[in-house]
Amino acid sequence: MKLFKRSNKQEQQRLESGLEKTRQGMFGKIGRLIKGKRKVDDVVLDGIEEALVTSDVGIKTTLEIVGHIQKRAARDLYTSSEELQQLIHDEIAGLMEKNLPELPSDFDAPFNHSPHVIMVVGVNGVGKTTTIGKLAWRYSQAGRSVLIGAGDTFRAAAIEQLEVWAQRAEVEMIKQKHGADPAAVAYDTVESAIRRSTDIAIIDTAGRLHTKTGLMDELAKMKRVMGKKLPEAPHEVLLVLDATIGQNALRQAHEFTQSVDITGLIVTKLDGSAKGGVIIGISNEFKIPVKYIGVGEQIDDLQVFDSHRFVEALSVMGT
Fold first, then answer.
1. Dihedral angle of Cα 288, 148, 171, 11, to the nearest 10 degrees
2. pLDDT tens track for 121-148
3. Three-state SS for 218?
4. How far apart (Å, rounded) are the C-alpha atoms in residues 82 and 317?
5. Are 170 and 1 contacting, i.e. CB atoms less than 8 angstroms apart?
6. pLDDT digits over 301-314, tens only?
7. Are 51 and 33 in contact (CB under 8 A)?
8. How far apart are CA 19 and CA 16, in angstroms?
C-alpha cells in the first residue's frame, strides 16, 4: 500500500525544522554578525570562522571556506548583508558539490543492474537499524521491490529490531539465528534477491568499532562473499553517522574509510543536534558524498541530500 508522500515544499519545511538547532548555532551567529554590513572585514571573517568551528564544521574545512570568502570579498563589491549571506551560502554549498555521488540518490532513479545491493555500515547507536528501515520504505514508496538482510547477527535484539522496521516498511527480510555468520546472511540475501528479481537488497552489518580489526575483516569478508554470487556487489557501501556526536563522527568516518571503500554517507539525528555542520566537514575532508540525511523520527524523515537545500535551510533569514 502506498502511503502519504510529502511534497517538496513540505520536505523543505521539515528540513528547516530539523535543522533549527544548527541554524541558530551557525547561521544565526553569522546573520547577527553581518547584519547591516556591506563588506567583509577581519571582524566578520573571525566571526564566521568561530561560528563554523563551534558548529563542528572542523578546522580544516572552516579555514578553506573562510579563505574562499576572503578572496571573493576582495574581488567583488557587496552592497548589503543579504548579499554577504548569499556569498557564504554559495561557498558552503559549492564546497559540498565537489563531492557529488556517482550513483543516483533519488529513490525512483534507474540502476543499470538488478538487484542493486547496498551494504550499510556504522557503529552501534548511530541509528543504523532505523535508517535501513527508512531507506527500505522510501525505495518501496518509489515502486521498487526491496529485500533486507539482517547481517548484524551479534548485537542482542538487532535482528528483532530490524524485523520490526521491515514490517513497518512492508518489505521482506532474510535472517538467520543469533550468532550466525554475517557473510552467510549477506550471501543468502543476494541469492534471494536474484531469485525473486528484487530491485534493491539492503544488507545490515555489525557495528562493533571497539573490535576494529575483527569488524573490518568481517565487512571485507561479507563483500567478497556477495561478490562471488553477484559480481561488483555491493554496489554501494553507505556509512551511517550520528550528527549529535559532532567531531566524534569525523573520527568514526576516519576509522571506516581506512578499511572500507565507503561510497556515500547517511547523517542521522540532525533534528536533535546543534552540530549539523559536521556534514560539511566530513564530506569535504574525506571526499565522500552525503547521500541522505535524517531529520526526524517518522518513517518518511529520511531525505535525499541536496547541498543547496541544506544550506538554504540553515540560512533562513530572520533566525
1. -20
2. 999 889 999 999 999 999 999 999 999 9
3. helix
4. 9
5. yes
6. 899 998 888 888 87
7. yes
8. 5
